[in-house]
Structures are given as structure tokens and as C-alpha cells.
Amino acid sequence: MPGILYTSAGNRYNHHMKIYISADIEGISGVTVWDETHQPGPDYPAACRQMTAEVRAACEAALACGATDILVRDAHGTARNIIHADLPQQARLVRNWSGGPLMMMEGLDKTFAAAIYIGYHARSGSAENPLAHTMSTTMSEFLINGKPVSEFDINALAAAEIGVPSVFISGDRGACEQAKTLVPRIGTAQIKYAAGDATVDIHPRKAVQMIFDGVNAALSRDNLKDCLPKPPKKMLVELRFKEPRKASRMACYPNAKQTGRLNVQIQCRGAMEILKIIQLIYG
Length: 283
Hints:
Layout: E1 18-23, H1 44-64, E2 69-74, E3 91-94, E4 114-120, E5 139-144, E6 147-148, H2 151-162, E7 166-172, H3 173-182, E8 187-195, E9 198-201, H4 204-219, E10 235-241, H5 244-250, E11 256-258, E12 263-268, H6 271-282
Parallel strand pairs: 1-2, 1-4, 2-3, 4-7, 7-8
Antiparallel strand pairs: 5-6, 5-10, 8-9, 10-12, 11-12
Helix pairs in contact: 1-4, 2-6
């Protein structure tokens, strides 16, 4: 964003370092209602510009810390929100959906040093964002081992199974606070908080600077692996749907058990299997 002065005080890496960035839109500064998150909403273009600016700040910080390759995953809606021409030339961009299981983490593999999350939002059932949800708005709650989880939780657990630490998140207050329960040492930038159906957002340019500073600090730590959560050995997933037909359909999944008119439980072997289940929910 023009007018922003970036300063860097982090360590410099002399070796090849790849950084992964997953970006959503509901936690971006200035995004409050659904029609700002997709076409043909009149404020959608402005949301895309700010999403791009916040992602660009993360890219610039990663480059300042020595990153030689950055893969950005546009992970919202149509996955065609970020303006690629406004990102640094070192940044590759994953657009649209391949149908593969990684979804919001498309392209991630063990060669990446760290994962960063921009514009993330609070989990379903949370009052910290009027747009709060977990993976799908068809569910009222998404639980793993009895605990309500966010999109960050699922994606960070999947990244951990691959061996990639999750070092930084920006978004609403709920997203940041909830992320710390899974990854206590993760860096955060709280961009907004909710007041009923309203949001209180920091200035867009301040959000950009906070993200740059936060990513710089996160990547300058001595050991990025401090942000590698340990996935539980067993994952009992409980999906609480808003419509009975969604629950009935999900109950057809192998080993799934319908425990109520709206509820389904599935014993999973890990976060990667959970992502495959989410693909079925979207289908």
C-alpha cells in the first residue's frame, strides 16, 4: 500500500527459505458483512484491495527475513480475490480450487520453513466476528475431541502432519486468541473485533504495518519449530449441521455415526482425513 514505510529488524537467513501464506478475507480490515466478501457486492473490490495489501505486507516481511520463494494460497470463496500483480515478483499465487484435499493449504509440502495465515476469522459459534464459521456456513459448530475448532486449527494441524510450523496469524481477535490455544508461541496481529453484528477495525494502513512487523518478528525467532503443534493421536470429529439433510448425507461417510437430527460423529486418523471430509461437505 503506498505510503507505508517498512522497517526490518529481523535475522537474515543465508540459506534457501520457502514461506507459505494462506489468506482468507473475513479477518481483513474493513470487512464486516457477507456482501463485502464476494461479487457483486459494491464493497467487494475494496475488500480485495485490502486483502492484497495485507498479503503483500506478509510477503515483504518474509523477503526481508531472507525468504527466496513464497507461495500464496488465495483461500476465500472463489479463490480469485488477490490481485497478483500487486504482490512481490517472488510470490507465486494459487488461485481457484483444484479439488484436492489440502484446500486452504493447497501446495503446502515439507519443503516450506513456515506457514503464515492472513485475514483469518473466529470459529463457528464464536461472537468475535459476525462472519464467524468453520469451513462451511452449513454447520453451526465443528468439534475435534469435544473442542470447537476454527479453520486455523484444522489447517495448522494439517501443516503439522506435513512438518511445517504455523508461525503467524492475522485477523479478528477471536482468531488470534483461539490460535494461541493450539500454538502458544504463534505471532499475532489483531485487526478487528466484533460488537454484535458490527466490527471495530483498525485503520487499513495500520493493519498492513502490524502484519509486516508481526511476520518479521515471527520469522526472526531462533527456532521456527517452536510453533509446530503436536496433533492428537486420535481425532473424534463432531459436525453440527443447520439442516437435517446435511447430517443425513454426512452420515453416509465410512465410520460416520449420526448422533442426533443435526449431529454426526466421525473417528478420523488425522487432520488430512478431516480435510477430505470437508471436501464432501462442500460437494
